[in-house]
Amino acid sequence: MGEIAVIGVGALFPQAPDAAAFWDNIVSGRDCIAELPDSRSDPRFYDPSSDRIDRIPTRRGGFVGEAVRFDAGAFGIMPVAAKGAEPDQMLALQIAAKTLKDAGYRDRDFNRERAAVILGRGGYLTPGMLRLHRKVKVAEQLASVLRDVVPGVSEKQIAEVQERFSEGAGHVGPDTAIGLVPNLVASRIANRLDFQGPAYTVDAACASALIAVEHAVRELQSGRCDLVLAGGVHLTHEEGFWSVFAQLGALSRTGMMRPFDQRADGLLIGEGIGMLALKRREDAERDSDRIYACIAGVGSSSDGRAASVMVPRVAGQVLALERAWAHAGVDRDKLGLVEAHGTGTAAGDRAEIETLKAVFGDHGAALGSVKSMIGHTMPAAGAAGLIKAVLAVYYGVIPPSLHCDQPNELLEGTAWRVPSKAEPWQAAERVAGVNAFGFGGINAHVVVRSAAEPVPRTPRSRRPSDRADVEVLILAAHSPEELLEAIDRGQTRGGSGPCRLAVLDPTPARVKMAREIVERWKPRAGRKGIWFRPKGLLDQGKLVFLFPGIEASFAPDVDGLAERFERPVPDYMRPADLEETGRGVIGLGRMLVGILRELGLHPDLVAGHSIGEWTAMIAAGVLDESEVDGFLDSVPVGDLQVAGVQFAAAGCGVAQAREAIEGLENIAISHDNCPHQVLLCGHDASIEVARSRLVKAGVMCQVLPFRSGFHSPLFQASVGAHTSLLGKMAVKAADLPLYSATTTDLFPTEPDAIRALAQEHLVAPLRWRELLLRQYADGGRVFVQVGTGSLPNFVRDTLAGKPHVALSLLNPRQDGLVGLRNLMLALFVEGVDLPLELFVPTPSLSVTLPLGTPLVRVEGITLGTAAPIDEDLPEELRDAMRRTLASLNAGPTQVMAALSSRRTALDRMTLSVEAVPALVDHCFFPQPPGWPLISDSHPVVPMTMTLELLMDIASQLAPDQVVVELADVELLRWLSVFPPLKIERRARRDGAWIRAEVVGYASARVRFAPSYSTAQASLPALVDPRPPPATAERLYADRWMFHGPQYQGVTDISAWDSSGVDGRITVPSGPGALLDNAGQLLGYWLIAASDEDKLAMPKGLESVRFFGPAPQVGAELDCRLRVTHTDERTIVGDAELTRDGKLWCRITGWADHRFKTGPKVWEVMRLPHTSVVSERQDGFWIFDDQAVRAPSRDWLARRYLSTAEREQMSKSRTPRQFLNGRIAVKDATRSWAWQQGEGPIFPVEAPRESTRWAVAASGKVAVAIAGDGPVGIGLDPDPDHALAAAQAGYEAGSGGGSRTVVRQPIVTRATLGDLTVVALR
Amino acid sequence: MTTLEALAELLQDVLADDWDPSTVVQMDTSFADDLELESIEFVVLAERIQERFGADIDFVTWISGMDLDGIIGLTVGEVVGFIDAERARAS
Q1: Against a cut of 0.90, is the pTM above it?
Q2: Which of A65, A402, A1229, B41 has the most CB atoms lying inside 10 A of its own CB?
Q3: Is CATH 1.10.1200 the right assignment for the domain spanning B3-18+26-90?
Q4: Nearest-by-Cβ selection for B61 from A524, A527, A695
Q5: How do residues A1243-1255 score in pLDDT, each as one tens digit?
């Protein structure tokens, strides 16, 4: 068969967030099985001694986490929809995007009509379905049970319990319902990634993923598709499912999965997602795709008539393998690895071994199963196994299989073996087979073959400091005590002040470690990914850039940096010889300095080590770059190398080194690097003597792997060419303090002196240690190695005991971007304020998807029960008993109610324009004054009013206290109050905080205190203040902001610059208006500072701190707003509001989402009553929606259409054309009216009765024409059809006028792309 | 005191203020990856080892014979093994 190439992989498995981690785990033999946490499996269900069907014997399994983060914003999915959907749909989408990226096609074009998604997935109960089931059926079942067993319970009480239970079960509603439809795990991928080939799921139990791959192979081989994402998905741990395996006796009671071991007692259940991107091999080669491996054959079968549907049948399995190998075109003897189904059950293992013997005869290979590491991932198992086999073939490594200490007897005497450690696999052709045998006897097998030589790989570092994808905690405060408070509050970002902390991967354990460091006031410079300074060194000290020279190893990883900063990767990053290394070092230094400058980092002092001095000279402006290029190009090749001369690095100081070379010829100290390192340079023989002297004295001494004579007299003979070239270089005085390692002094300023120094530098000893001491004496405290090398070591050793910090931008085996991030964090802690958001994850529309369905707790209700009263008792006695019982029951109920009311609060309310009239002034789409339909204006609750709603419900639990802080503010969606909106608010205690939420819309944590504390305003002044482009008066008049009077608070804008705005706010009367106005300044800055994409809407904020009670309406406050981050999609800022010079409120991380809007759309948003978005041409109007992105189209629909028109649009079969047409008509008619001298007209008011108009639409374009007589217009690829349509319109008199044709029309024609427009007037 | 314990003490000495109290020094602890020892600190450690175990062992020669990759990958266990072997030979 034609081979299929695997060009991309993606995975999410236990303890493996991606495919690279998955492979690293496999190779290192990591056991990723653990006890399921309580949130995934309630401890109640666990009881090994019971054989009840609702009791499970083990809690061990493979799980990917209690919750997984999903970047909803990146896929354009509303956070509430993401949270309410099946987690497997969201995460499969995320993995699919990663797989496509791994294949190289995220940004590259491919034929989407021929791209498909086929995923194995079972019909098992998954979290979303379980939530729905609980809400719908279990809640009702619960009510029914209560009715049955609690006599006298009222329907009202039952309803209350049912409602509480239902809420605790999570949010399910029309907005999340689609997320529960199972096949969407494939279709959603097709939807978001725009695939138009088939997208569906297949269920073949444990063989599902390989069956999906078989489908994919068929699609590709038949030529129906060109690219298929295939794999398997299983993301659930449900007790009923576990119970099935327990009842079948298939679940391991010992809690260990041992495929092919004699003591194997069953399987453990895992979960995960695995995907592969597949193409026909010839297409992959044609497109130069990276090919991991090729699928040479695939086969499937059923067991047919077998002893039972659960007992595997060897003959059935053999059939699948034979079918796969039949046309694979691979010799069976080449098989080197089998990734077995390997469930570790006695029957399963036995049958599988028999099958392998039957198919491969005496030939054997390495055998194993990834299930031993991650458990049985059910429908995803085939994908896990296939990815493992593909990567094993690609990297040339035979992976280990765990827990097989006593191999099954059936393997004895065969050539099959189960390796317990990874082995190299060097064969030129590497072949693997993957088995998957599903319940019910469905069998599948895939043959995998290598496509090229093995690719070497070093496992990725697990250290947080080496990983790019970790969360970061970044805090600043005015003192360590304040910092400790912030840590204890659970804060992870924000604050200001000189006392700073940064922690990578802030797990609770690591935060505890960091806390101890802060408590001890111990400065920390990045070891174990923690940086801390009570007060940064750069407050008083200077920043030094050091440029490294040539060292023993040079293999920097700068591809990421080059891509991010859009610079070419310098040449010679993998140099072949000494000269190339020299060029590489200098080229790298130049690129890095450029990047640091771009980020706003300028050194106070610079120096370079050996050839690094040339890089330093370029950075300081002494030499022009072209001079160095010229120099290096002119130096005769091979001249830097000196035969017979070598360097030795001695682990001692200068004094001891001098002793060691005493009396020897042709040897000298070339580099005095630090107290524990000196380089000797000399002839081989002398070096050997010196070396043995040193070793005898107990000093480490190593010969270095390059031959040259720099910085020693031995280079004198070779430097003729260099010296004369240096003598001709164009140089000038340095523009910042540049030190010479030859003189340990600043560079001279006079050009001749500079050249002489450069010449001397070649042969004079390098006095690096003394130079560092000199720089320290001149104030240097923060030393940054701009490149890769040992300079930080030299600094630390030389300055040991003195306050300093030595950092390096690049580090061995570390991605340059990670190095830069770490450097930024280190410099931040030392007092530099940098755009950290470039390197650390920003608060995004990322949501946490819980994967478990823990038992629901119902709190705050107890059911009063009426005990049955004996009917035989006299009436008065019965009455007396009833009264007594009632009062007895009332007591506990009241106590419970009183107790619970202190722990939780709950209320319901309706928001509407009637209930909160001020909201009329907070409409997204203001309409003309007096417009009857409020729905057309779209009134919404401002984000800051939502905060008030949250603070209000929270304060019910802290009646005598004041709100001092809000944190973790999460906004799921806007509260639109037309039609009136019923909301429910809840609050509950959570440690020192109170969690408040508007259910389904927003949540936050609120902190109360008896009184306010005070703090100092700390936002910096504007750097370069300029008068603002619009004054406060024009802000609302010119519609920079859409707000009406009750939200118009900005009364003065005093100045602005690239870092922010300063203004004055007079408190208006709308709820939440004061803080809303702070946000308005952020929006204002964006409009002023950017040329496009000016429309922004608030999406959240990190925290708000209050230092006093809320000011009254009319009070005046100063507001400083500083922008902390902007990119294409977001803008984030901090704000401080002060009153009479005292800080009242500090907001951090106010984030707005930016919408892509061109200038025209922006104008019409701002001034809809006087501007249009369509283009005018030859007397008619064109609206082409190609230039407008989807979110802006939604806005335009709202802006232009009335409620009735929107309704029409939703019923139309071509809603896009409907919208385009209406926009064109309204623009055409309004423009016509304006030409006649009329005043402003809102789109919703158009078209008017008196104006005649005609419209035509085709594809993405609509055209319209307006006038006071008959008009007609046509738009069609065929000019004749266009004319006919125009005539028809013209004759019909065109909407709103008489039907008589009065005269011959004037005809205009034009072409728009491949369409023709004909207009008649 | 075992060789491992002695080595842990020396490490604590060398790392001084940067010593992380929660660190557990075991045989498979790697100097570069787990302890994040800088190469200059390794030189100082070599000094201390030589001082502590003295004439019995020639740590420096052993190290000097390794290439860079070998040193980077060194584990505490390998050093303990070397020290124990040398002492056994000496006695």
Answers
A1: no
A2: A1229
A3: yes
A4: A695
A5: 888 888 888 889 9
